[in-house]
Specification:
Blueprint (H helix, E strand, L loop, with lengths): L5 H5 L10 E6 L4 E7 L27 H19 L5 E7 L10 H14 L1 H4 L3 E6 L7 H14 L2 E5 L5 H8 L5 H12 L4 E6 L2 E2 L6 H16 L4 E7 L10 E2 L3 H13 L6 E6 L2 E7 L1
Parallel strand pairs: 2-3, 3-4, 4-5, 5-6, 6-8, 8-10
Antiparallel strand pairs: 1-2, 7-9, 10-11
Length: 288
Protein backbone atom coordinates (compact mmCIF):
# COMPACT_ATOMS: atom_id res chain seq x y z
CA UNK A 1 0.00 0.00 0.00
CA UNK A 2 1.31 3.51 -0.77
CA UNK A 3 2.85 5.47 2.06
CA UNK A 4 1.12 8.73 2.90
CA UNK A 5 3.16 11.90 2.72
CA UNK A 6 3.14 14.44 5.55
CA UNK A 7 1.09 16.67 3.26
CA UNK A 8 -1.63 14.06 2.90
CA UNK A 9 -1.79 13.28 6.61
CA UNK A 10 -1.75 16.90 7.79
CA UNK A 11 -4.26 18.19 5.20
CA UNK A 12 -1.91 20.92 3.96
CA UNK A 13 -3.24 22.76 0.92
CA UNK A 14 0.10 23.79 -0.56
CA UNK A 15 2.06 26.86 0.47
CA UNK A 16 -0.22 29.06 2.60
CA UNK A 17 -3.20 26.95 1.52
CA UNK A 18 -2.99 28.03 -2.13
CA UNK A 19 -3.53 24.64 -3.79
CA UNK A 20 -6.77 24.16 -5.70
CA UNK A 21 -6.76 20.39 -5.15
CA UNK A 22 -5.09 18.48 -2.35
CA UNK A 23 -5.11 14.76 -1.54
CA UNK A 24 -5.62 13.96 2.14
CA UNK A 25 -5.97 10.85 4.23
CA UNK A 26 -9.29 11.59 5.88
CA UNK A 27 -10.27 9.87 9.12
CA UNK A 28 -13.94 10.62 8.46
CA UNK A 29 -13.80 9.32 4.89
CA UNK A 30 -11.56 6.52 6.19
CA UNK A 31 -9.21 6.71 3.25
CA UNK A 32 -7.87 8.90 0.45
CA UNK A 33 -9.94 11.99 -0.22
CA UNK A 34 -9.33 14.56 -2.94
CA UNK A 35 -10.00 18.00 -1.49
CA UNK A 36 -11.12 20.90 -3.67
CA UNK A 37 -10.34 24.41 -2.48
CA UNK A 38 -12.52 27.27 -3.78
CA UNK A 39 -10.59 29.91 -1.79
CA UNK A 40 -6.87 29.60 -2.57
CA UNK A 41 -6.27 33.31 -1.91
CA UNK A 42 -7.39 33.45 1.74
CA UNK A 43 -9.78 32.05 4.29
CA UNK A 44 -13.36 33.05 3.50
CA UNK A 45 -15.95 31.98 6.01
CA UNK A 46 -18.92 33.47 7.84
CA UNK A 47 -17.96 31.48 10.95
CA UNK A 48 -14.81 31.96 13.02
CA UNK A 49 -14.65 28.59 14.76
CA UNK A 50 -11.91 28.39 17.41
CA UNK A 51 -11.11 24.83 16.36
CA UNK A 52 -10.48 25.74 12.69
CA UNK A 53 -6.99 24.89 11.42
CA UNK A 54 -7.11 27.30 8.46
CA UNK A 55 -4.93 30.36 8.98
CA UNK A 56 -5.69 33.90 7.83
CA UNK A 57 -2.60 34.09 5.61
CA UNK A 58 -3.18 35.43 2.10
CA UNK A 59 -1.72 34.43 -1.26
CA UNK A 60 -1.71 35.84 -4.78
CA UNK A 61 -3.52 32.78 -6.14
CA UNK A 62 -6.93 33.74 -7.51
CA UNK A 63 -9.52 31.02 -8.05
CA UNK A 64 -10.13 30.24 -11.69
CA UNK A 65 -12.30 27.38 -12.93
CA UNK A 66 -9.92 26.76 -15.83
CA UNK A 67 -7.04 26.30 -13.40
CA UNK A 68 -9.16 23.97 -11.27
CA UNK A 69 -9.83 21.91 -14.38
CA UNK A 70 -6.09 21.64 -15.03
CA UNK A 71 -5.32 20.78 -11.41
CA UNK A 72 -7.88 17.95 -11.23
CA UNK A 73 -6.75 16.63 -14.60
CA UNK A 74 -3.12 16.64 -13.42
CA UNK A 75 -4.09 14.76 -10.27
CA UNK A 76 -5.83 11.95 -12.15
CA UNK A 77 -3.40 11.72 -15.06
CA UNK A 78 -0.12 12.11 -13.17
CA UNK A 79 -0.10 12.58 -9.40
CA UNK A 80 -2.47 9.75 -8.51
CA UNK A 81 -0.69 7.26 -10.75
CA UNK A 82 2.72 8.30 -9.42
CA UNK A 83 1.93 8.29 -5.71
CA UNK A 84 -1.31 6.44 -4.92
CA UNK A 85 -2.06 4.08 -7.81
CA UNK A 86 -4.30 1.25 -6.65
CA UNK A 87 -5.50 3.08 -3.54
CA UNK A 88 -9.27 3.69 -3.59
CA UNK A 89 -10.38 7.32 -3.72
CA UNK A 90 -13.10 7.50 -1.10
CA UNK A 91 -14.46 10.86 -2.15
CA UNK A 92 -13.95 14.11 -4.02
CA UNK A 93 -14.66 16.71 -1.36
CA UNK A 94 -15.37 20.41 -1.78
CA UNK A 95 -14.15 22.07 1.42
CA UNK A 96 -10.89 24.03 1.48
CA UNK A 97 -10.17 27.40 3.09
CA UNK A 98 -13.69 28.43 4.00
CA UNK A 99 -17.42 27.95 3.49
CA UNK A 100 -17.95 26.66 -0.06
CA UNK A 101 -21.53 27.94 -0.33
CA UNK A 102 -20.10 31.48 -0.32
CA UNK A 103 -18.26 30.90 -3.59
CA UNK A 104 -19.82 32.08 -6.87
CA UNK A 105 -17.96 29.16 -8.49
CA UNK A 106 -19.63 26.41 -6.45
CA UNK A 107 -21.87 25.11 -9.25
CA UNK A 108 -19.05 25.08 -11.79
CA UNK A 109 -16.80 23.24 -9.32
CA UNK A 110 -19.47 20.63 -8.55
CA UNK A 111 -20.01 20.07 -12.26
CA UNK A 112 -16.29 19.72 -12.90
CA UNK A 113 -15.81 17.23 -10.05
CA UNK A 114 -18.76 15.14 -11.26
CA UNK A 115 -17.38 15.19 -14.80
CA UNK A 116 -13.95 13.96 -13.72
CA UNK A 117 -15.50 11.24 -11.59
CA UNK A 118 -17.21 9.95 -14.74
CA UNK A 119 -14.18 10.49 -16.98
CA UNK A 120 -11.86 8.57 -14.66
CA UNK A 121 -14.41 6.01 -13.54
CA UNK A 122 -11.77 3.27 -13.23
CA UNK A 123 -10.10 5.37 -10.51
CA UNK A 124 -12.91 7.42 -8.99
CA UNK A 125 -16.12 5.81 -10.19
CA UNK A 126 -16.91 4.43 -6.74
CA UNK A 127 -15.99 7.63 -4.92
CA UNK A 128 -18.58 9.93 -3.41
CA UNK A 129 -19.01 13.59 -4.25
CA UNK A 130 -19.02 15.48 -0.94
CA UNK A 131 -19.45 19.05 0.22
CA UNK A 132 -18.55 20.09 3.77
CA UNK A 133 -20.64 23.08 4.81
CA UNK A 134 -21.38 25.07 7.96
CA UNK A 135 -25.10 24.93 7.05
CA UNK A 136 -25.57 28.68 6.49
CA UNK A 137 -26.16 28.03 2.79
CA UNK A 138 -29.49 26.40 3.64
CA UNK A 139 -30.74 29.90 4.48
CA UNK A 140 -30.28 30.85 0.80
CA UNK A 141 -32.97 29.35 -1.49
CA UNK A 142 -30.61 29.49 -4.47
CA UNK A 143 -27.89 27.51 -2.67
CA UNK A 144 -30.44 24.99 -1.37
CA UNK A 145 -31.80 24.45 -4.88
CA UNK A 146 -28.28 23.97 -6.26
CA UNK A 147 -27.37 21.42 -3.60
CA UNK A 148 -30.67 19.55 -4.04
CA UNK A 149 -30.06 19.30 -7.79
CA UNK A 150 -26.66 17.69 -7.27
CA UNK A 151 -27.98 15.36 -4.57
CA UNK A 152 -30.57 14.12 -7.04
CA UNK A 153 -28.37 14.02 -10.13
CA UNK A 154 -24.93 13.11 -8.77
CA UNK A 155 -25.65 11.60 -5.35
CA UNK A 156 -23.93 14.54 -3.62
CA UNK A 157 -23.29 13.87 0.06
CA UNK A 158 -23.80 16.92 2.25
CA UNK A 159 -21.87 17.05 5.51
CA UNK A 160 -23.74 19.80 7.35
CA UNK A 161 -22.29 21.37 10.49
CA UNK A 162 -24.36 21.40 13.67
CA UNK A 163 -22.01 21.77 16.61
CA UNK A 164 -24.31 22.50 19.53
CA UNK A 165 -27.83 22.25 20.88
CA UNK A 166 -27.82 25.61 22.67
CA UNK A 167 -27.40 29.16 21.46
CA UNK A 168 -24.54 29.74 23.92
CA UNK A 169 -22.73 26.63 22.74
CA UNK A 170 -23.35 27.49 19.10
CA UNK A 171 -22.07 31.02 19.63
CA UNK A 172 -18.92 29.78 21.37
CA UNK A 173 -18.12 27.33 18.56
CA UNK A 174 -19.11 29.46 15.56
CA UNK A 175 -18.29 32.95 16.88
CA UNK A 176 -20.80 34.28 14.38
CA UNK A 177 -23.87 36.53 14.33
CA UNK A 178 -26.16 33.69 13.26
CA UNK A 179 -28.94 32.32 15.46
CA UNK A 180 -28.93 28.59 16.11
CA UNK A 181 -32.71 28.40 15.55
CA UNK A 182 -32.30 29.84 12.05
CA UNK A 183 -29.57 27.34 11.20
CA UNK A 184 -31.66 24.44 12.50
CA UNK A 185 -34.72 25.63 10.58
CA UNK A 186 -32.62 25.81 7.41
CA UNK A 187 -31.29 22.29 7.90
CA UNK A 188 -34.81 21.05 8.63
CA UNK A 189 -36.33 22.58 5.51
CA UNK A 190 -33.67 21.04 3.29
CA UNK A 191 -33.45 17.68 5.03
CA UNK A 192 -37.17 17.01 4.86
CA UNK A 193 -36.60 16.43 1.14
CA UNK A 194 -32.90 15.54 0.85
CA UNK A 195 -30.62 13.54 3.17
CA UNK A 196 -27.80 15.17 5.10
CA UNK A 197 -25.00 13.92 7.32
CA UNK A 198 -24.61 16.09 10.40
CA UNK A 199 -21.04 16.88 11.45
CA UNK A 200 -20.65 17.83 15.09
CA UNK A 201 -17.39 19.01 16.61
CA UNK A 202 -16.95 17.88 20.22
CA UNK A 203 -14.02 19.63 21.89
CA UNK A 204 -12.97 21.46 25.03
CA UNK A 205 -12.84 25.26 25.15
CA UNK A 206 -10.36 26.72 27.61
CA UNK A 207 -10.10 23.29 29.22
CA UNK A 208 -13.84 22.79 29.68
CA UNK A 209 -15.43 19.86 27.85
CA UNK A 210 -19.15 19.79 26.97
CA UNK A 211 -21.17 18.28 29.80
CA UNK A 212 -24.53 16.64 30.36
CA UNK A 213 -26.45 19.88 29.80
CA UNK A 214 -24.98 20.30 26.33
CA UNK A 215 -25.64 16.65 25.46
CA UNK A 216 -29.27 17.00 26.59
CA UNK A 217 -29.76 20.20 24.57
CA UNK A 218 -28.23 18.61 21.48
CA UNK A 219 -30.35 15.47 21.86
CA UNK A 220 -33.50 17.61 22.14
CA UNK A 221 -32.54 19.54 19.02
CA UNK A 222 -31.93 16.30 17.08
CA UNK A 223 -35.26 14.90 18.24
CA UNK A 224 -36.90 18.09 17.00
CA UNK A 225 -35.35 17.71 13.57
CA UNK A 226 -36.19 14.01 13.32
CA UNK A 227 -39.76 14.51 14.49
CA UNK A 228 -40.24 17.05 11.68
CA UNK A 229 -39.16 14.46 9.12
CA UNK A 230 -35.53 15.49 8.59
CA UNK A 231 -33.60 12.81 6.70
CA UNK A 232 -30.47 12.59 8.83
CA UNK A 233 -28.38 9.87 7.26
CA UNK A 234 -25.82 9.84 10.08
CA UNK A 235 -24.24 12.00 12.76
CA UNK A 236 -20.47 12.40 12.76
CA UNK A 237 -19.18 13.21 16.23
CA UNK A 238 -15.54 14.23 15.83
CA UNK A 239 -12.87 16.02 17.80
CA UNK A 240 -9.81 18.09 16.88
CA UNK A 241 -7.10 16.19 15.00
CA UNK A 242 -4.77 18.93 13.74
CA UNK A 243 -3.23 22.15 15.02
CA UNK A 244 -5.85 24.84 15.51
CA UNK A 245 -5.50 28.55 14.82
CA UNK A 246 -6.80 29.23 18.35
CA UNK A 247 -5.17 27.29 21.23
CA UNK A 248 -8.29 27.73 23.39
CA UNK A 249 -9.81 24.73 21.59
CA UNK A 250 -8.50 21.31 22.64
CA UNK A 251 -9.17 17.75 21.51
CA UNK A 252 -11.03 15.23 23.67
CA UNK A 253 -9.66 11.76 24.36
CA UNK A 254 -11.29 8.68 22.86
CA UNK A 255 -12.79 7.89 26.25
CA UNK A 256 -14.31 11.36 26.52
CA UNK A 257 -15.73 11.07 23.01
CA UNK A 258 -17.34 7.73 23.81
CA UNK A 259 -18.77 9.10 27.05
CA UNK A 260 -20.30 12.09 25.26
CA UNK A 261 -21.74 9.85 22.54
CA UNK A 262 -23.28 7.58 25.19
CA UNK A 263 -24.89 10.56 26.95
CA UNK A 264 -26.26 11.81 23.67
CA UNK A 265 -27.57 8.44 22.54
CA UNK A 266 -29.26 7.69 25.87
CA UNK A 267 -31.39 10.83 25.55
CA UNK A 268 -32.37 10.44 21.89
CA UNK A 269 -35.83 9.24 20.99
CA UNK A 270 -35.02 8.03 17.49
CA UNK A 271 -31.59 6.48 17.04
CA UNK A 272 -29.74 7.72 13.97
CA UNK A 273 -26.38 6.23 13.08
CA UNK A 274 -23.57 7.68 15.22
CA UNK A 275 -20.07 7.74 13.76
CA UNK A 276 -17.47 8.66 16.36
CA UNK A 277 -14.02 9.94 15.40
CA UNK A 278 -11.13 10.59 17.77
CA UNK A 279 -7.87 12.32 17.03
CA UNK A 280 -6.48 9.25 15.23
CA UNK A 281 -9.53 7.99 13.38
CA UNK A 282 -12.82 6.19 13.80
CA UNK A 283 -13.51 4.95 17.32
CA UNK A 284 -16.74 3.21 16.49
CA UNK A 285 -19.24 3.24 13.66
CA UNK A 286 -22.44 1.69 14.92
CA UNK A 287 -26.14 2.24 15.28
CA UNK A 288 -26.79 3.01 18.91
Amino acid sequence: MPMFSEEVVSHKRGENGASLVYPVFSRRSEGLSLGVNLFPDRKRCNFDCPYCEVSHETTRTVFDIGNLNLAIKDFFERRYLRHWAGLPIKDICISGNGEPSLSPHLEAALELCAEYRRRFSSIAGASELVIITNSTGFLDPGVSELLARYVEREGLKIWAKLDSGSQDGFQALSRSAYRLDDIVDGIGRFARSWPVILQTMVCALNGEAPGTGEALAYAALLDRLLSLGAKIEAIQLYTIARTTADPSAQALSDGEMLAYAAMLSSHLGKKPSLRIFGRDGAIRAARE
